[in-house]
Specification:
The complex is a heterodimer of chains A (about 400) and B (about 90).
Chain A: H1 2-10, E1 12-19, H2 23-31, E2 36-43, E3 46-52, H3 53-61, E4 68-76, H4 78-85, H5 89-105, E5 111-114, H6 119-131, H7 145-155, E6 159-167, E7 170-177, E8 191-195, E9 199-208, E10 210-211, E11 218-219, E12 224-227, E13 229-231, E14 237-239, E15 243-259, E16 261-279, E17 282-285, E18 297-305, E19 311-327, H8 330-347, E20 351-362, E21 365-377, E22 379-383
Parallel strand pairs in A: 5-7
Antiparallel strand pairs in A: 1-3, 1-4, 2-3, 6-7, 8-12, 8-22, 9-11, 9-15, 10-12, 13-14, 15-21, 16-17, 16-19, 18-19, 20-21
Chain B: H1 2-13, E1 26-30, E2 34-38, E3 40-46, E4 50-55, E5 59-72, E6 76-88
Antiparallel strand pairs in B: 1-2, 2-6, 3-4, 4-5, 5-6
The chains are: A alpha+beta (about 400), B mainly beta (about 90).
Chain lengths: ~400, ~90
């Protein structure tokens, strides 16, 4: 391996010595101190052997016995490739330009990813980052991460900490929101407690204010439950910040459509693959015919993005399927959906009391109506605005 | 001759390996696939079935099949192929 590498670096020449007693050439080369490799005798009066480029030059310039002819059979190695390629300048320039372009492309920010952010926060942070120069197309070395962090923290009070990590051609933003302290009550302002939903009061725990309902009372949405007005004397009224918890049994309803027949997709085994390279946002298709010949098919898309250059490899697998239909068992499905609905309500902190469901026909599908009776907190506070309707119009 | 005797005595006195001062051919056989000869003086005859080489001491003959010389420097030679025998003439 080492010898092969040296042969490639310094170049080798395969020579053919033909004539009477060609071994003499080997001895002459040996006396000249030329390293000879791979000597084979092809015919009675001819020998093939390899020497270095320099050795071949020295040997060919030497006056050799006239009855022996020495010819070059093959040249190999870097010096010879270099010699051949020296006329093909574009062959060198092309890869060099591509390498340079790739290197330059890695010096820019191509993606800004904000980790664990809801759409609104993401948009807000992206906008702020853009103002500070952290955006698509920005040069990486112009971004001072500490400076960006400090400016963001100064701009947005809701941020506890933030860090912009530059990895490859992407900026990864990690942050944590500050837990804001509870609002300070103004003792002089009056607040009432209203109902958010329609139901029947099950429990009421007024901690401040005048309770207007009792357990067992039916309430409507927006009804005043705890009043923040305390009569001081017949002429004067004192306004206080009403507080407390009001629980009511409320019917929660959800209607979903269930198809009468369900689709069963069975793979046939036939598949077509489409590969494409996405450079930044520009896709380069690596396939000619984009038409899919299958009537029914599933698409499985997978992609891999390189971190150091803005290139994504995208693979689309089109798998042919046969589609058959089978009757849905509505009862089983209804029980599953009801269970799912109950779980979602429990996750909100509601206590489930009872439930019911019924199905109505709706052409190709059925409408499943689910009603769950829950005990939940229905109280919400609102400042007393004089001269206005203080009822809660919408939750 | 006197020189040779002196060298042998020196070699024996110094407890050196046999022939190290006399430049005797040093033959290393790697199984039946390769033979390496140090202190060789020249290639006399070469074919795919036999190689005759001149050494400081005598002529060495290597018989075999599919023989070829893998390398050759001013002091050593490496012969590859299926080696059947190595003999002195």
């Amino acid at each position: 391996m080492r010898l092969q590498l040296l042969n490639f670096i310094f170049g080798t020449v395969r020579l053919k010595a033909e004539g009477v007693f060609p071994e003499r050439i080997i001895n002459i080369a040996n006396q000249m101190g030329i390293f000879i490799q791979d000597i084979t005798k092809t015919e009675e009066k001819s020998i093939l052997f390899s020497v270095s480029s320099e050795g071949a030059r020295r040997l060919l310039s030497q006056s050799l016995p006239p009855e022996i002819a020495l010819t070059v059979i093959k040249t190999s190695g870097f010096p010879w490739i270099k010699n051949t390629m020296s006329h093909r300048k574009l062959l060198f320039i092309g890869p060099c330009v591509i390498a340079l372009l790739l290197f330059l492309s890695t010096q820019f920010i191509w993606t800004v990813n904000i980790i664990d952010a809801d759409p609104a926060t993401e948009e807000k942070l992206l906008h702020m980052l853009k103002d500070l120069g952290v955006k698509r197309g920005a040069l990486k070395f112009t971004i001072n991460q500490s400076e960006v962090k400090d400016k963001l923290l100064m701009k947005d009070d809701s941020l506890l900490w933030i860090w912009v990590d530059i990895k490859g051609s992407g900026a990864i933003v990690k942050f944590a929101n500050r837990t804001m302290p509870p609002a300070v009550f103004n003792e002089n302002e009056g607040y009432n407690i209203y109902s958010l939903k329609e139901g029947t009061v099950t429990r009421i725990v007024p901690t401040n204010g005048n309770a207007l309902v009792r357990p067992g009372d039916s309430i409507t949405k927006g009804q005043l439950l705890i009043e923040g007005i305390m009569p001081k004397n017949p002429e004067e009224t004192k306004y206080i910040h009403a507080s407390g918890e009001v629980f009511a049994s409320v019917w929660e309803e959800k209607i979903i459509s269930i198809p009468k027949k369900k689709e069963i997709r069975t793979p046939t085994g036939k598949k077509t693959q489409h590969l494409s390279i996405i450079f930044s946002k520009f896709p380069i298709k690596l396939f000619i015919n984009s038409r899919i010949l299958y009537t029914n098919y599933d698409i499985i898309v997978s992609s891999r993005t390189l971190s150091f250059i803005p290139i994504t490899f995208k693979k689309e697998d089109y798998r042919e399927v046969t589609v058959t239909y089978q009757d849905n068992n509505i009862d089983i499905l209804a029980a599953e959906y009801l269970n799912e609905f109950k779980n979602s309500l429990s996750a909100k902190g509601y206590s489930i009391i009872s439930s019911r469901w019924y199905v109505t026909d709706n052409g190709d599908s059925c409408l499943l109506t689910m009603n769950v009776l829950c005990e939940e907190m229905v109280a919400t506070e609102r400042r007393i605005n004089f001269g206005e309707n203080n009822s809660v119009s919408d939750s | 001759m006197k020189n040779k005797r002196f060298l042998r005595k020196t070699q024996s006195a110094l407890d050196l390996s046999e022939g190290i001062l006399e430049n005797l051919p040093n033959i290393i056989l790697y199984g039946t696939s390769m033979v390496e000869v140090d202190n060789f003086k020249g290639l006399l005859d070469f074919s795919t079935s036999s190689v005759r080489i001149n050494t400081t001491d005598s002529i060495l003959r290597i018989d075999g099949s599919e023989l070829h010389i893998s390398f050759l420097t001013d002091e050593s030679i490496g012969i590859k192929g299926k080696i059947i025998s190595v003999s002195f003439e």
